[in-house]
Amino acid sequence: MTANELREMYLGFFKSKGHTVISGASLIPENDPTVLFTTAGMHPLVPYLLGEPHPAGKRLCNVQKCIRTGDIDTVGDASHLTFFEMMGNWSLGDYFKEEAIAWSFEFLTSRQYLGFRPDQLHVTVFEGNAEVPRDEQSIAIWRKLGIPAERIYALPVDDNWWGPAGKTGPCGPDTEMFIDTRPGEGAGRPGQGGGRFFEIWNDVFMQYEKKDDGTFAALRQSNVDTGMGVERTVTMLQGRTSVYETELFAPIMAAIAEGASRRLDESAETVKASRVIADHVRSAVFVLGDERGVVPGNLGQGYVLRRLIRRAVRFARQLGLKEGFLKPLAESVVDNYKHVYPDLAARREFIVTELGVEEGKFEKTLDRGTAELDKVLQNLKAHGQTSLSGRVAFRLYDTCGFPLEFTEEICREQGVSVDRAAFDKAFEQHRDVSRQGADQLFKGGLADNSETTTRLHTATHLLHKSLQMVLGDHVKQKGSNITAERLRFDFAHTDKMTPEQIKQVEDLVNQAIQRRLEVSMNVMTVEDAREKGAMALFSAKYGEQVKVYQMGDFSLEVCGGPHVSNTGELGHFRIVKEESSSAGVRRIRAVLE
Length: 593
Hints:
Layout: H1 3-16, E1 20-21, H2 46-49, E2 59-67, E3 83-92, H3 97-109, E4 121-126, H4 136-144, E5 152-155, H5 157-160, E6 161-162, E7 169-180, E8 197-210, E9 216-229, H6 230-237, H7 250-259, H8 268-288, H9 300-319, H10 326-337, H11 342-346, H12 348-382, E10 387-388, H13 390-400, H14 404-413, E11 417-418, H15 420-442, H16 451-471, E12 477-482, E13 487-492, H17 499-514, E14 519-525, H18 526-531, E15 545-551, E16 555-558, E17 573-582, E18 585-592
Parallel strand pairs: 1-2, 4-5, 10-11
Antiparallel strand pairs: 2-3, 3-9, 4-7, 6-7, 7-8, 8-9, 12-13, 13-18, 14-15, 15-16, 17-18
Helix pairs in contact: 3-4, 7-8, 7-10, 8-9, 8-10, 9-12, 10-12, 13-15, 16-17
Protein backbone atom coordinates (compact mmCIF):
# COMPACT_ATOMS: atom_id res chain seq x y z
CA MET A 1 0.00 0.00 0.00
CA THR A 2 1.32 3.42 -0.95
CA ALA A 3 1.11 6.54 1.19
CA ASN A 4 -1.49 7.98 -1.20
CA GLU A 5 -3.66 4.89 -0.82
CA LEU A 6 -3.24 4.94 2.95
CA ARG A 7 -4.35 8.57 3.30
CA GLU A 8 -7.45 7.93 1.18
CA MET A 9 -8.32 4.69 2.98
CA TYR A 10 -7.97 6.27 6.43
CA LEU A 11 -10.17 9.26 5.65
CA GLY A 12 -12.70 7.02 3.89
CA PHE A 13 -12.88 4.68 6.89
CA PHE A 14 -13.64 7.45 9.36
CA LYS A 15 -16.01 9.14 6.95
CA SER A 16 -17.98 5.87 7.04
CA LYS A 17 -18.06 6.23 10.85
CA GLY A 18 -19.77 9.62 10.63
CA HIS A 19 -16.68 11.86 10.63
CA THR A 20 -16.32 15.03 8.56
CA VAL A 21 -13.04 15.32 6.66
CA ILE A 22 -11.46 18.72 7.41
CA SER A 23 -8.34 20.40 6.03
CA GLY A 24 -5.00 20.16 7.77
CA ALA A 25 -3.76 23.41 9.26
CA SER A 26 -0.57 25.36 8.59
CA LEU A 27 2.72 24.18 10.10
CA ILE A 28 2.96 27.64 11.67
CA PRO A 29 0.33 27.89 14.44
CA GLU A 30 -2.04 30.81 14.15
CA ASN A 31 -2.68 32.77 17.35
CA ASP A 32 -0.99 30.15 19.54
CA PRO A 33 2.18 31.35 21.29
CA THR A 34 2.59 28.11 23.25
CA VAL A 35 4.36 26.26 20.40
CA LEU A 36 6.61 27.25 17.50
CA PHE A 37 5.21 24.66 15.10
CA THR A 38 2.14 22.48 14.80
CA THR A 39 3.46 19.34 16.49
CA ALA A 40 0.19 17.39 16.50
CA GLY A 41 -3.23 17.47 14.91
CA MET A 42 -4.75 18.66 18.18
CA HIS A 43 -3.09 22.10 18.18
CA PRO A 44 -5.45 23.80 15.72
CA LEU A 45 -8.37 22.20 17.57
CA VAL A 46 -7.59 23.29 21.15
CA PRO A 47 -10.55 25.73 21.40
CA TYR A 48 -12.91 22.95 20.33
CA LEU A 49 -11.36 20.43 22.72
CA LEU A 50 -12.08 22.97 25.46
CA GLY A 51 -15.76 23.11 24.48
CA GLU A 52 -16.21 25.64 21.67
CA PRO A 53 -18.46 24.13 18.94
CA HIS A 54 -16.67 23.23 15.68
CA PRO A 55 -18.44 24.28 12.46
CA ALA A 56 -17.97 20.79 11.00
CA GLY A 57 -19.53 18.98 13.96
CA LYS A 58 -18.35 16.67 16.74
CA ARG A 59 -16.65 13.96 14.66
CA LEU A 60 -13.66 15.08 12.57
CA CYS A 61 -10.74 13.53 10.71
CA ASN A 62 -7.85 14.82 8.59
CA VAL A 63 -4.17 14.53 7.67
CA GLN A 64 -2.00 17.11 9.44
CA LYS A 65 1.54 18.25 8.62
CA CYS A 66 3.67 18.27 11.80
CA ILE A 67 7.13 19.36 12.91
CA ARG A 68 8.78 18.06 16.08
CA THR A 69 12.43 18.71 16.97
CA GLY A 70 12.47 17.36 20.53
CA ASP A 71 13.94 14.08 19.26
CA ILE A 72 16.25 15.65 16.67
CA ASP A 73 19.28 13.78 17.99
CA THR A 74 17.56 10.44 17.29
CA VAL A 75 16.88 11.30 13.64
CA GLY A 76 18.84 8.82 11.57
CA ASP A 77 17.38 5.72 13.19
CA ALA A 78 14.64 3.68 11.51
CA SER A 79 11.62 5.78 12.48
CA HIS A 80 12.26 9.21 14.03
CA LEU A 81 11.55 12.25 11.85
CA THR A 82 11.32 16.01 12.36
CA PHE A 83 8.60 16.45 9.71
CA PHE A 84 5.82 13.89 9.39
CA GLU A 85 2.19 13.56 8.36
CA MET A 86 -0.26 12.59 11.08
CA MET A 87 -3.64 11.08 10.27
CA GLY A 88 -6.10 11.83 13.05
CA ASN A 89 -9.72 11.42 14.09
CA TRP A 90 -11.44 13.38 16.85
CA SER A 91 -14.49 13.15 18.99
CA LEU A 92 -15.44 16.49 20.52
CA GLY A 93 -17.62 15.37 23.41
CA ASP A 94 -19.22 12.58 21.36
CA TYR A 95 -17.92 8.98 21.42
CA PHE A 96 -15.15 7.93 23.82
CA LYS A 97 -12.87 4.99 24.63
CA GLU A 98 -15.13 2.12 23.58
CA GLU A 99 -15.62 3.31 20.00
CA ALA A 100 -12.16 4.84 19.55
CA ILE A 101 -10.29 1.67 20.52
CA ALA A 102 -12.66 -0.63 18.61
CA TRP A 103 -12.28 1.41 15.43
CA SER A 104 -8.50 1.50 15.80
CA PHE A 105 -8.49 -2.28 16.13
CA GLU A 106 -10.82 -2.67 13.13
CA PHE A 107 -8.77 -0.43 10.85
CA LEU A 108 -5.49 -2.09 11.86
CA THR A 109 -6.56 -5.73 11.64
CA SER A 110 -9.49 -5.99 9.20
CA ARG A 111 -8.56 -7.50 5.82
CA GLN A 112 -10.74 -4.80 4.27
CA TYR A 113 -8.29 -2.21 5.60
CA LEU A 114 -4.68 -2.61 6.81
CA GLY A 115 -4.84 -6.31 7.58
CA PHE A 116 -2.19 -6.65 10.29
CA ARG A 117 -2.41 -9.92 12.18
CA PRO A 118 -3.87 -9.41 15.67
CA ASP A 119 -0.97 -11.40 17.15
CA GLN A 120 1.44 -8.71 15.84
CA LEU A 121 -0.34 -6.07 17.91
CA HIS A 122 0.98 -4.94 21.31
CA VAL A 123 -0.65 -2.08 23.24
CA THR A 124 0.24 0.20 26.14
CA VAL A 125 -2.05 2.04 28.57
CA PHE A 126 -1.60 4.55 31.41
CA GLU A 127 -0.60 2.89 34.69
CA GLY A 128 -1.96 5.75 36.83
CA ASN A 129 -0.41 8.05 39.41
CA ALA A 130 -1.37 10.16 42.43
CA GLU A 131 -3.60 12.47 40.35
CA VAL A 132 -5.17 10.12 37.79
CA PRO A 133 -6.10 6.44 38.26
CA ARG A 134 -4.92 3.47 36.19
CA ASP A 135 -6.79 3.18 32.88
CA GLU A 136 -8.67 -0.02 33.65
CA GLN A 137 -11.36 0.79 31.09
CA SER A 138 -8.94 0.72 28.15
CA ILE A 139 -7.43 -2.52 29.43
CA ALA A 140 -10.88 -4.11 29.58
CA ILE A 141 -11.75 -2.94 26.04
CA TRP A 142 -8.53 -4.36 24.59
CA ARG A 143 -9.14 -7.67 26.40
CA LYS A 144 -12.67 -7.81 24.97
CA LEU A 145 -11.24 -7.29 21.47
CA GLY A 146 -8.97 -10.32 21.95
CA ILE A 147 -5.62 -8.81 22.96
CA PRO A 148 -4.26 -11.05 25.75
CA ALA A 149 -3.08 -9.59 29.05
CA GLU A 150 0.56 -10.41 28.26
CA ARG A 151 0.46 -8.02 25.30
CA ILE A 152 -1.08 -5.12 27.26
CA TYR A 153 1.45 -3.01 29.19
CA ALA A 154 0.62 -0.37 31.80
CA LEU A 155 3.27 2.37 31.59
CA PRO A 156 3.89 5.68 33.44
CA VAL A 157 3.36 9.35 32.52
CA ASP A 158 6.45 9.55 30.30
CA ASP A 159 5.03 6.84 28.06
CA ASN A 160 1.24 7.02 28.19
CA TRP A 161 0.14 10.51 29.10
CA TRP A 162 -0.47 13.25 26.53
CA GLY A 163 0.24 16.64 28.08
CA PRO A 164 -0.98 20.06 26.93
CA ALA A 165 0.78 21.90 24.11
CA GLY A 166 1.93 24.60 26.55
CA LYS A 167 1.91 24.83 30.35
CA THR A 168 -1.87 24.58 30.48
CA GLY A 169 -4.62 23.05 28.37
CA PRO A 170 -6.40 19.78 27.55
CA CYS A 171 -4.61 16.53 28.34
CA GLY A 172 -5.20 12.95 29.36
CA PRO A 173 -4.13 9.29 29.31
CA ASP A 174 -3.55 7.46 26.05
CA THR A 175 -3.32 3.97 24.66
CA GLU A 176 -0.65 3.29 22.06
CA MET A 177 -0.48 0.52 19.48
CA PHE A 178 2.74 -1.15 18.34
CA ILE A 179 3.51 -3.66 15.61
CA ASP A 180 6.00 -6.39 16.55
CA THR A 181 8.28 -6.60 13.52
CA ARG A 182 10.15 -9.67 14.81
CA PRO A 183 7.57 -11.82 16.66
CA GLY A 184 9.77 -14.90 16.37
CA GLU A 185 12.27 -13.49 18.85
CA GLY A 186 10.12 -14.42 21.85
CA ALA A 187 9.45 -12.19 24.85
CA GLY A 188 9.78 -8.45 24.51
CA ARG A 189 7.77 -5.28 24.93
CA PRO A 190 7.43 -1.77 23.48
CA GLY A 191 9.96 0.75 24.75
CA GLN A 192 12.89 -1.67 24.96
CA GLY A 193 14.64 -0.23 21.91
CA GLY A 194 16.27 -2.14 19.09
CA GLY A 195 13.62 -1.17 16.54
CA ARG A 196 11.59 -4.33 17.06
CA PHE A 197 8.38 -2.58 18.14
CA PHE A 198 7.08 0.15 15.80
CA GLU A 199 4.58 2.58 17.32
CA ILE A 200 1.80 2.90 14.77
CA TRP A 201 -1.18 4.61 16.45
CA ASN A 202 -1.99 6.63 19.54
CA ASP A 203 -5.48 7.17 20.98
CA VAL A 204 -5.52 10.06 23.48
CA PHE A 205 -8.45 10.43 25.85
CA MET A 206 -8.61 14.11 26.73
CA GLN A 207 -10.57 14.11 29.94
CA TYR A 208 -8.63 16.76 31.87
CA GLU A 209 -7.44 20.34 31.70
CA LYS A 210 -4.13 21.27 33.33
CA LYS A 211 -4.42 24.54 35.27
CA ASP A 212 -1.82 27.24 35.95
CA ASP A 213 -1.15 25.81 39.41
CA GLY A 214 -0.34 22.36 37.99
CA THR A 215 -3.58 20.71 39.13
CA PHE A 216 -5.97 18.80 36.87
CA ALA A 217 -9.68 19.48 36.45
CA ALA A 218 -12.21 17.48 34.45
CA LEU A 219 -12.97 18.98 31.06
CA ARG A 220 -16.52 20.06 30.26
CA GLN A 221 -16.53 17.29 27.68
CA SER A 222 -14.50 14.10 27.21
CA ASN A 223 -12.67 14.08 23.88
CA VAL A 224 -10.81 11.61 21.71
CA ASP A 225 -7.70 12.72 19.81
CA THR A 226 -5.89 10.07 17.79
CA GLY A 227 -2.78 10.07 15.65
CA MET A 228 -1.42 7.60 13.11
CA GLY A 229 1.80 8.50 11.31
CA VAL A 230 1.73 8.10 7.54
CA GLU A 231 5.44 7.34 7.28
CA ARG A 232 5.60 4.70 10.02
CA THR A 233 2.41 2.97 8.93
CA VAL A 234 3.48 2.74 5.28
CA THR A 235 6.83 1.33 6.44
CA MET A 236 5.04 -1.51 8.24
CA LEU A 237 2.59 -2.15 5.41
CA GLN A 238 5.41 -2.43 2.87
CA GLY A 239 7.49 -4.72 5.07
CA ARG A 240 10.36 -2.22 5.22
CA THR A 241 12.82 -1.87 8.06
CA SER A 242 12.93 1.96 8.05
CA VAL A 243 10.82 4.90 6.86
CA TYR A 244 13.66 5.88 4.52
CA GLU A 245 13.06 2.78 2.39
CA THR A 246 9.55 3.88 1.35
CA GLU A 247 8.51 5.89 -1.72
CA LEU A 248 8.21 8.96 0.53
CA PHE A 249 12.01 9.13 0.76
CA ALA A 250 13.19 7.19 -2.31
CA PRO A 251 13.70 10.25 -4.60
CA ILE A 252 15.68 12.29 -2.09
CA MET A 253 17.78 9.31 -0.98
CA ALA A 254 18.63 8.68 -4.65
CA ALA A 255 19.53 12.36 -5.11
CA ILE A 256 21.86 12.21 -2.09
CA ALA A 257 23.64 9.12 -3.43
CA GLU A 258 23.97 10.73 -6.87
CA GLY A 259 25.42 13.96 -5.47
CA ALA A 260 27.97 12.32 -3.16
CA SER A 261 31.64 12.51 -4.18
CA ARG A 262 32.10 8.82 -3.40
CA ARG A 263 30.11 5.63 -3.57
CA LEU A 264 28.14 5.50 -0.32
CA ASP A 265 28.78 2.45 1.82
CA GLU A 266 26.47 0.87 4.39
CA SER A 267 28.43 1.97 7.45
CA ALA A 268 26.44 3.32 10.39
CA GLU A 269 27.97 6.80 9.93
CA THR A 270 27.08 6.98 6.23
CA VAL A 271 23.55 5.67 6.75
CA LYS A 272 22.90 8.16 9.54
CA ALA A 273 24.31 11.08 7.54
CA SER A 274 22.16 10.25 4.51
CA ARG A 275 19.02 9.93 6.63
CA VAL A 276 19.62 13.16 8.55
CA ILE A 277 20.13 15.07 5.30
CA ALA A 278 16.97 13.58 3.79
CA ASP A 279 14.87 14.29 6.88
CA HIS A 280 16.13 17.83 7.46
CA VAL A 281 15.88 18.92 3.83
CA ARG A 282 12.34 17.52 3.61
CA SER A 283 11.40 19.39 6.79
CA ALA A 284 12.96 22.63 5.54
CA VAL A 285 11.08 22.35 2.23
CA PHE A 286 7.76 21.96 4.02
CA VAL A 287 8.42 24.89 6.37
CA LEU A 288 9.46 27.17 3.51
CA GLY A 289 6.62 25.90 1.34
CA ASP A 290 3.93 26.37 3.98
CA GLU A 291 1.17 28.92 3.38
CA ARG A 292 2.53 30.83 6.39
CA GLY A 293 6.12 29.99 5.48
CA VAL A 294 8.98 31.53 7.44
CA VAL A 295 12.60 32.13 6.44
CA PRO A 296 15.81 31.16 8.29
CA GLY A 297 16.60 33.50 11.17
CA ASN A 298 17.90 33.77 14.73
CA LEU A 299 14.58 33.55 16.60
CA GLY A 300 11.57 31.28 16.86
CA GLN A 301 10.56 29.26 13.81
CA GLY A 302 13.31 30.91 11.76
CA TYR A 303 15.95 29.60 14.17
CA VAL A 304 14.61 26.04 14.03
CA LEU A 305 14.56 26.20 10.23
CA ARG A 306 18.13 27.51 10.17
CA ARG A 307 19.25 24.72 12.49
CA LEU A 308 17.69 22.06 10.25
CA ILE A 309 19.37 23.45 7.13
CA ARG A 310 22.76 23.82 8.81
CA ARG A 311 22.67 20.30 10.25
CA ALA A 312 21.95 19.05 6.72
CA VAL A 313 24.96 20.99 5.40
CA ARG A 314 27.19 19.62 8.14
CA PHE A 315 26.26 16.00 7.41
CA ALA A 316 26.52 16.67 3.66
CA ARG A 317 30.20 17.55 4.10
CA GLN A 318 30.72 14.09 5.58
CA LEU A 319 29.43 12.54 2.34
CA GLY A 320 31.28 14.93 0.08
CA LEU A 321 28.18 16.62 -1.30
CA LYS A 322 29.27 19.76 -3.11
CA GLU A 323 28.04 23.30 -2.43
CA GLY A 324 24.67 23.82 -4.09
CA PHE A 325 23.52 20.28 -3.22
CA LEU A 326 20.33 21.55 -1.54
CA LYS A 327 18.68 22.60 -4.80
CA PRO A 328 18.31 19.14 -6.42
CA LEU A 329 17.37 17.59 -3.08
CA ALA A 330 14.68 20.19 -2.44
CA GLU A 331 13.28 19.81 -5.94
CA SER A 332 13.03 16.04 -5.48
CA VAL A 333 10.88 16.65 -2.37
CA VAL A 334 8.66 19.17 -4.15
CA ASP A 335 8.13 16.83 -7.10
CA ASN A 336 7.37 13.90 -4.80
CA TYR A 337 4.71 15.78 -2.77
CA LYS A 338 3.27 18.44 -5.07
CA HIS A 339 0.19 16.34 -5.93
CA VAL A 340 -0.72 16.19 -2.23
CA TYR A 341 0.50 19.68 -1.22
CA PRO A 342 0.21 22.04 -4.24
CA ASP A 343 1.65 24.94 -2.17
CA LEU A 344 5.09 23.34 -2.57
CA ALA A 345 4.96 23.61 -6.35
CA ALA A 346 3.61 27.17 -6.19
CA ARG A 347 6.49 28.21 -3.89
CA ARG A 348 9.21 26.14 -5.57
CA GLU A 349 11.36 29.12 -6.56
CA PHE A 350 11.10 30.68 -3.11
CA ILE A 351 12.02 27.38 -1.44
CA VAL A 352 15.06 26.76 -3.62
CA THR A 353 16.27 30.37 -3.36
CA GLU A 354 16.04 30.55 0.45
CA LEU A 355 17.78 27.20 0.85
CA GLY A 356 20.58 28.33 -1.45
CA VAL A 357 21.09 31.59 0.45
CA GLU A 358 21.22 29.81 3.82
CA GLU A 359 23.54 27.12 2.48
CA GLY A 360 25.94 29.78 1.19
CA LYS A 361 25.90 31.62 4.52
CA PHE A 362 26.70 28.47 6.47
CA GLU A 363 29.49 27.43 4.12
CA LYS A 364 31.12 30.79 4.90
CA THR A 365 30.48 30.19 8.62
CA LEU A 366 32.24 26.84 8.42
CA ASP A 367 35.19 28.40 6.60
CA ARG A 368 35.36 31.18 9.22
CA GLY A 369 35.17 28.67 12.08
CA THR A 370 37.89 26.53 10.54
CA ALA A 371 40.18 29.55 10.25
CA GLU A 372 39.49 30.53 13.87
CA LEU A 373 40.17 26.98 15.09
CA ASP A 374 43.43 26.83 13.14
CA LYS A 375 44.65 29.92 15.02
CA VAL A 376 43.73 28.33 18.36
CA LEU A 377 45.52 25.08 17.47
CA GLN A 378 48.67 26.93 16.40
CA ASN A 379 48.69 28.72 19.76
CA LEU A 380 48.22 25.43 21.63
CA LYS A 381 51.10 23.80 19.79
CA ALA A 382 53.32 26.82 20.43
CA HIS A 383 52.78 26.27 24.17
CA GLY A 384 53.11 22.49 24.02
CA GLN A 385 49.47 21.83 24.91
CA THR A 386 47.44 18.88 23.57
CA SER A 387 43.96 19.65 24.89
CA LEU A 388 41.40 22.21 23.69
CA SER A 389 39.27 23.62 26.50
CA GLY A 390 35.52 23.04 26.41
CA ARG A 391 35.00 26.77 26.87
CA VAL A 392 36.83 27.55 23.63
CA ALA A 393 35.00 24.76 21.79
CA PHE A 394 31.68 26.18 22.96
CA ARG A 395 32.69 29.72 21.94
CA LEU A 396 33.34 28.42 18.42
CA TYR A 397 29.95 26.72 18.49
CA ASP A 398 28.02 29.64 19.98
CA THR A 399 29.57 32.64 18.22
CA CYS A 400 30.78 31.10 14.93
CA GLY A 401 28.10 28.42 14.61
CA PHE A 402 30.93 25.88 14.26
CA PRO A 403 29.68 22.36 15.10
CA LEU A 404 31.43 20.51 17.92
CA GLU A 405 31.83 17.44 15.70
CA PHE A 406 33.88 19.51 13.25
CA THR A 407 36.01 20.87 16.10
CA GLU A 408 36.66 17.34 17.41
CA GLU A 409 37.45 16.00 13.93
CA ILE A 410 39.99 18.73 13.13
CA CYS A 411 41.55 18.49 16.60
CA ARG A 412 41.82 14.71 16.27
CA GLU A 413 43.77 15.13 13.02
CA GLN A 414 46.16 17.46 14.88
CA GLY A 415 46.59 15.10 17.84
CA VAL A 416 44.61 17.39 20.16
CA SER A 417 41.80 16.25 22.46
CA VAL A 418 38.69 18.30 23.29
CA ASP A 419 37.37 18.68 26.85
CA ARG A 420 33.90 17.36 26.03
CA ALA A 421 32.71 17.47 29.66
CA ALA A 422 33.44 21.20 29.92
CA PHE A 423 31.73 21.81 26.56
CA ASP A 424 28.64 19.89 27.73
CA LYS A 425 28.55 21.96 30.93
CA ALA A 426 28.73 25.25 28.99
CA PHE A 427 26.10 23.97 26.58
CA GLU A 428 23.70 23.02 29.41
CA GLN A 429 24.11 26.44 31.01
CA HIS A 430 23.33 28.04 27.64
CA ARG A 431 20.29 25.79 27.17
CA ASP A 432 18.96 26.57 30.65
CA VAL A 433 19.11 30.28 29.86
CA SER A 434 17.37 29.66 26.53
CA ARG A 435 14.63 27.64 28.21
CA GLN A 436 14.02 30.39 30.73
CA GLY A 437 13.78 32.85 27.86
CA ALA A 438 11.35 30.58 26.04
CA ASP A 439 9.22 30.22 29.15
CA GLN A 440 8.98 34.00 29.33
CA LEU A 441 8.27 34.27 25.61
CA PHE A 442 5.54 31.67 25.46
CA LYS A 443 3.80 32.01 28.81
CA GLY A 444 0.02 32.22 28.60
CA GLY A 445 -1.60 32.15 25.19
CA LEU A 446 -4.89 31.51 23.51
CA ALA A 447 -5.02 27.94 24.72
CA ASP A 448 -6.23 29.19 28.11
CA ASN A 449 -9.01 31.37 26.60
CA SER A 450 -8.37 33.98 29.29
CA GLU A 451 -10.27 37.28 29.20
CA THR A 452 -7.22 39.44 28.48
CA THR A 453 -5.93 37.14 25.75
CA THR A 454 -9.38 37.03 24.15
CA ARG A 455 -9.53 40.84 24.09
CA LEU A 456 -6.12 41.09 22.45
CA HIS A 457 -7.04 38.40 19.94
CA THR A 458 -10.17 40.33 18.99
CA ALA A 459 -8.06 43.48 18.59
CA THR A 460 -5.87 41.74 15.98
CA HIS A 461 -8.90 41.65 13.65
CA LEU A 462 -9.31 45.42 13.97
CA LEU A 463 -5.56 45.91 13.50
CA HIS A 464 -5.49 43.72 10.39
CA LYS A 465 -8.29 45.66 8.72
CA SER A 466 -6.85 49.04 9.75
CA LEU A 467 -3.46 48.16 8.25
CA GLN A 468 -5.13 47.33 4.96
CA MET A 469 -7.01 50.64 5.02
CA VAL A 470 -3.81 52.63 5.63
CA LEU A 471 -1.18 50.64 3.72
CA GLY A 472 -3.18 48.81 1.04
CA ASP A 473 -4.89 45.50 0.30
CA HIS A 474 -1.53 43.75 -0.13
CA VAL A 475 -1.28 43.60 3.68
CA LYS A 476 -1.91 40.00 4.77
CA GLN A 477 -1.33 38.41 8.15
CA LYS A 478 1.87 36.35 8.22
CA GLY A 479 1.69 35.25 11.85
CA SER A 480 0.76 36.33 15.34
CA ASN A 481 1.74 35.66 18.92
CA ILE A 482 -0.70 36.70 21.63
CA THR A 483 -0.13 36.54 25.37
CA ALA A 484 -2.15 38.05 28.18
CA GLU A 485 0.23 41.04 28.17
CA ARG A 486 0.45 42.03 24.50
CA LEU A 487 -0.20 41.07 20.90
CA ARG A 488 2.44 40.58 18.22
CA PHE A 489 1.24 40.76 14.63
CA ASP A 490 3.33 40.00 11.51
CA PHE A 491 2.10 41.20 8.13
CA ALA A 492 3.22 41.38 4.51
CA HIS A 493 4.62 44.85 3.81
CA THR A 494 8.02 46.00 2.57
CA ASP A 495 8.57 49.51 3.93
CA LYS A 496 8.95 50.75 7.48
CA MET A 497 5.75 52.47 8.61
CA THR A 498 5.95 56.21 9.16
CA PRO A 499 4.87 57.75 12.48
CA GLU A 500 1.86 59.21 10.65
CA GLN A 501 0.82 55.80 9.36
CA ILE A 502 1.16 54.24 12.81
CA LYS A 503 -1.01 57.03 14.26
CA GLN A 504 -3.62 56.48 11.51
CA VAL A 505 -3.80 52.76 12.28
CA GLU A 506 -4.12 53.38 16.03
CA ASP A 507 -6.89 55.91 15.44
CA LEU A 508 -8.85 53.54 13.17
CA VAL A 509 -8.68 50.72 15.71
CA ASN A 510 -9.71 52.98 18.60
CA GLN A 511 -12.57 54.46 16.57
CA ALA A 512 -13.87 50.94 15.93
CA ILE A 513 -13.59 50.23 19.66
CA GLN A 514 -15.43 53.43 20.58
CA ARG A 515 -18.24 52.59 18.17
CA ARG A 516 -18.98 49.50 20.32
CA LEU A 517 -19.41 47.24 17.29
CA GLU A 518 -21.23 43.96 17.81
CA VAL A 519 -19.05 40.88 17.21
CA SER A 520 -21.05 38.12 15.53
CA MET A 521 -20.14 34.72 14.14
CA ASN A 522 -21.65 32.78 11.24
CA VAL A 523 -20.75 29.35 9.91
CA MET A 524 -20.54 29.19 6.12
CA THR A 525 -18.67 27.46 3.30
CA VAL A 526 -15.28 28.61 2.11
CA GLU A 527 -16.86 29.79 -1.14
CA ASP A 528 -19.48 31.90 0.67
CA ALA A 529 -16.76 33.43 2.87
CA ARG A 530 -14.77 34.37 -0.23
CA GLU A 531 -17.81 35.90 -1.91
CA LYS A 532 -18.55 38.01 1.16
CA GLY A 533 -14.99 39.34 1.11
CA ALA A 534 -13.83 37.73 4.34
CA MET A 535 -10.10 37.90 5.02
CA ALA A 536 -8.41 34.49 5.35
CA LEU A 537 -5.66 32.31 3.98
CA PHE A 538 -8.38 29.97 2.67
CA SER A 539 -6.40 26.78 3.18
CA ALA A 540 -9.65 24.91 3.82
CA LYS A 541 -10.97 22.58 1.14
CA TYR A 542 -13.78 23.32 -1.27
CA GLY A 543 -17.15 23.06 0.44
CA GLU A 544 -15.72 23.00 3.96
CA GLN A 545 -17.50 24.89 6.73
CA VAL A 546 -15.60 27.73 8.43
CA LYS A 547 -16.34 30.31 11.13
CA VAL A 548 -16.56 33.91 9.95
CA TYR A 549 -16.42 36.68 12.58
CA GLN A 550 -17.93 40.06 11.73
CA MET A 551 -17.31 43.24 13.70
CA GLY A 552 -20.08 45.60 12.64
CA ASP A 553 -19.37 47.08 9.22
CA PHE A 554 -15.61 47.19 9.92
CA SER A 555 -14.08 43.72 9.81
CA LEU A 556 -14.98 40.32 8.31
CA GLU A 557 -12.49 37.51 8.84
CA VAL A 558 -12.32 33.72 8.98
CA CYS A 559 -11.07 32.65 12.42
CA GLY A 560 -11.42 29.86 14.97
CA GLY A 561 -10.25 31.62 18.13
CA PRO A 562 -12.17 33.21 21.02
CA HIS A 563 -13.62 36.74 20.75
CA VAL A 564 -15.42 39.32 22.90
CA SER A 565 -19.06 40.04 22.07
CA ASN A 566 -18.61 43.81 21.59
CA THR A 567 -15.56 45.90 20.61
CA GLY A 568 -16.40 48.31 23.43
CA GLU A 569 -14.95 45.73 25.85
CA LEU A 570 -11.41 46.17 24.49
CA GLY A 571 -10.19 49.41 26.08
CA HIS A 572 -7.63 51.71 24.44
CA PHE A 573 -5.38 50.27 21.72
CA ARG A 574 -1.74 51.40 21.49
CA ILE A 575 1.06 50.31 19.14
CA VAL A 576 4.22 49.88 21.18
CA LYS A 577 6.62 49.04 18.37
CA GLU A 578 6.78 48.61 14.59
CA GLU A 579 9.80 46.78 13.17
CA SER A 580 11.07 44.40 10.50
CA SER A 581 10.37 40.70 11.08
CA SER A 582 11.98 39.25 7.94
CA ALA A 583 12.30 40.08 4.25
CA GLY A 584 9.01 41.62 3.12
CA VAL A 585 7.39 41.18 6.54
CA ARG A 586 6.83 43.85 9.21
CA ARG A 587 5.94 43.27 12.86
CA ILE A 588 3.74 45.25 15.24
CA ARG A 589 3.62 44.89 19.01
CA ALA A 590 0.60 46.42 20.67
CA VAL A 591 -1.26 46.54 23.98
CA LEU A 592 -4.73 47.31 25.30
CA GLU A 593 -4.91 49.83 28.14
